[in-house]
Amino acid sequence: MKKTGLSPRPTTVQPRRLHALAAACLTLGLALPALGQTPPTAPAAAPAPSAAPAAAVPPTWAQGRTPEQLKLNLVPNPPGVTAAAAEDIPVKQLKVPAGFKIELWATGLPNGRSMTLSPSGVLYVGSRFTGNVYAVLDKGDHREVKVLAKGLHRPNGVAFKDGNLYVAELERINRYDNIEANLDAPPAPKVIFDALPKDEPHGWKFMTLSPDGKYLYFQIGTPANIVAQPVTHAQIVRLNLDTNLLETVASGVRNSVGMAFHPTTKELWFTNNGRDWVDENLPNDTLNHITAKRMNFGYPFCHQGDLLDPIYGKGRSCDEFDKPTAKLGAHVAALGMRFYTGKQFPAEYQNNIFIAEHGSWNKSQKSGYQVIRVVLDKQGQVVKQEPFVTGWLNNNEFWGRPTDVQQMKDGSLLISDDETGAIFRVSYGK
Predict the structure, then answer these.
(1) Contact 411, 86 (CB under 8 A)
(2) Neighbouring residues of 10: CB distance < 8 A, sequence distance ≥ 6
(3) Are 395 and 374 within 8 A, CB to CB?
(4) pLDDT band for position 56 (50/70/90)?
(5) Which residue of 18, 81, 82, 217 is surrounded by the most CB atoms within 10 Å?
(6) What is the DSSP string of 71-132?
(7) Which residues on adjacent β-strands are paired with residue 251?
(8) Gap between the Cα atoms of 193 and 188, Å rounded
(9) For residue 48, how many C-alpha atoms fall within 13 Å in the half-sphere facing its CB?
(10) Alpha carbons 330 and 391: distance in angstroms, whole number
(11) How many alpha carbons fall within 13 Å on the CB side of residue 360?
């Protein structure tokens, strides 16, 4: 215990069938050498002892780089796996619009990422690299952080329903029953679905409940930067909690790590991360929403609605695919998003979208590292988007990385930061 003051027509897949299909597709993918790279020649005879060693296979994040991009020495940011002390977090550098206030709300959540709030006010937080799931209890003058689970495999996604906590690991969905009566001694989880692909690249999940509580929605990301992925990947799916069937909701989605339902229309909106290594300024990450059945957002053939992929777009047209609702900027890493429905912020913030931009790694001039506000009109079109919280990035150096946003009962907004292991609170008052 630690204290700190601070519907396309669904494609239905049975669990065993999905598992077999995933295994078959992955096997096929490994057997096809031309997945965004030059096919090898026929096997050659064993080299003489003096021959140079074979070139190492590049990591998946480097797949798709051009020879010129190899010279840039850009690699993914090291993950934050420890929590910074409260006194070492420069919260005063964070800037919010006039009338708003931002403060350090909780610390001590190493790599804390996706959040969900229970009706009783307990905040649950998943992680990606530490394997932990946290519960944060608001004690008024301080927050109490409990580690509910350790040693899980990429337990990024969390959702809460009927007293039970759902946690999405990379390859399965777990349920912790009656969790709030057992916060000090959580029960062993029940595995409710275990037939998900096991690919590490883009394998972590963001998870949300449907408005009627019948489905868990989450994504299955592409297994590489740019690849002709198996049919089991690059999609948003939903799990029926009554029948335990997995259904496809949308395809051509490279990797969405944030989604939410519109408060009025009940349509699903989601962020999507564009591919790397086209250009420092292309393609954009996008904001999308589902308005019809069988929507396909283009990956790997088309990006951002109007940019054909230099490899897989040959002979294709972006008009074949559905368009994003908005472009958010290149490589900003748009992750968690929520609609604002509270009463604390001014009326013009009602039904706005807040998006956490985790920040770029493959740009010489970094972008993102902020929370943005997206304003919609009554037809669901974007009127404007603008920075809402800035200051994690200064002089092209970052000290924090916003990951998710969560509205509280009082109408304030929480922001998780997996670099510092902290949660910030934004409030409004005259």
Answers:
(1) no
(2) 238, 247, 248, 249
(3) no
(4) low
(5) 217
(6) GG---PPPP--SPPPGGG--GGG-B--TTEEEEEEE---TTEEEEEE-TTS-EEEEESSS--
(7) 235, 296
(8) 15
(9) 2
(10) 19
(11) 25
Give CA–CA dist 117/124, Å, rounded. Answer: 6
pTM over 0.85: yes
Q: Are strands 235-240 and 157-161 parallel, antiparallel or unpaired?
A: unpaired
The answer to whether residue 47 scores a pLDDT higher than 90 is no
pLDDT band at 20 (very low <50, low <70, confident <90, very high): very low
Positive or negative, the CA dihedral 399, 424, 406, 218 is: positive
Given a cut of 90, whether residue 8 has pLDDT beyond it is no
Encode pLDDT of 234-243 as tens digits: 999 999 999 9
Distance CA 389, CA 366 (A): 16
**With bands split at pLDDT 50, 70 and 90, how would you rate the model's confidence at 68?**
confident
Residue type, 258: G
DSSP assignment, residue 131?
-
Which pLDDT band, with edges at 50, 70 and 90, does 49 fall under?
A: very low
**Right CATH number for 2-29+65-428 from 3.40.109.10, 3.40.50.300, 2.120.10.30, 3.40.50.2000?**
2.120.10.30
Looking at residue 303, its amino acid is H
The answer, yes or no, to whether residue 31 has pLDDT greater than 50, is no
Q: Name the token pair of 268.
A: 């699903």
H or E stretch covering 17: helix 15-31
Residues 72-128: tens digit of each pLDDT: 888 999 999 999 999 999 999 999 999 999 999 999 999 999 999 999 999 999 999
Amino acid in the structure at residue 192: I
The 3-state DSSP class for residue 70 equals helix
Residue 57's pLDDT band, with cuts at 50, 70 and 90, is: confident
What is the token pair recorded at 165? 């906590």
* Closest-CA residue to 407 (of 377, 378, 371, 382): 371
Q: Quick check: 109 and 145 in contact, CB under 8 A? A: yes
Question: CA 403, CA 278: separation in Å to the nearest integer?
Answer: 24
Mean pLDDT within 182-205: 96
Encoded tokens for 161:
């329903």
CA atoms of 30 and 35, how far apart (whole Å): 9
Evaluated on CA atoms 310, 312, 316, 319, the torsion sign reads negative
